[in-house]
């Protein structure tokens, strides 16, 4: 029980906008949903998402997995010739074009599998500890600013 309480306090510290009791309620609900799944009960997609978000992953892991998944989907879109014009217009940044959105969307774009793989490893290993140190808002602001040079 002491370890669980320490985990809730740590989670509340890292996600400053959540109250400690909300963490406890989310964890209890997620554990209940996971028990239902273990016993073969059907759960909704929302319940499954909730259980994964609040029961199995540390704070920040879900955000980083989603980011890496989006990077993977962008990489796959680059491989399809019919999306090439769309990708060039929306995922390649050039200051001459004057498009601000590409400054952000280009952070999701990777040129090769090794590029995607090494950036993903760095995001997971270094990014997770940075996420826990500074919090989610500051982490994503830093990533966006660093990637958009």
UniProtKB/TrEMBL annotation:
Domain Peptidase S54 rhomboid: 99-143
SUPFAM superfamilies the UniProt entry points to: Rhomboid-like (SSF144091)
Gene Ontology BP, a term: signal peptide processing
Transmembrane segments: 62-80
Main localization of the protein described in the UniProt heading: membrane
One function term, GO molecular function aspect: serine-type endopeptidase activity
Any one GO cellular component localisation term in the record: membrane
Membrane topology: Multi-pass membrane protein
Keywords assigned by UniProt, alphabetized: Hydrolase, Membrane, Transmembrane, Transmembrane helix
Protein name: Peptidase S54 rhomboid domain-containing protein
Organism of derivation: Salpingoeca rosetta (strain ATCC 50818 / BSB-021)
């Amino acid at each position: 029980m002491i370890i669980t309480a320490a985990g809730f306090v740590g989670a509340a510290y890292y996600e400053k906008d959540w109250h400690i009791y909300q963490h406890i309620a989310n964890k209890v609900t997620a554990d209940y949903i996971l028990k239902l799944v273990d016993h073969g009960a059907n759960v909704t997609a929302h319940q499954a998402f909730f259980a994964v978000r609040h029961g199995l992953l540390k704070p920040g892991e879900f955000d980083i997995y989603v980011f890496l998944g989006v990077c993977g989907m962008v990489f796959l879109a680059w491989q399809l010739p019919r999306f090439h014009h769309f990708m060039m217009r929306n995922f390649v940044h050039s200051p001459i074009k004057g498009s601000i959105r590409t400054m952000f969307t280009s952070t999701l774009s990777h040129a090769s599998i090794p590029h995607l793989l090494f950036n993903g490893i760095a995001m997971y290993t270094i990014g997770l500890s940075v996420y826990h140190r500074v919090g989610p808002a500051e982490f994503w602001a830093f990533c966006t600013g660093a990637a958009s040079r």
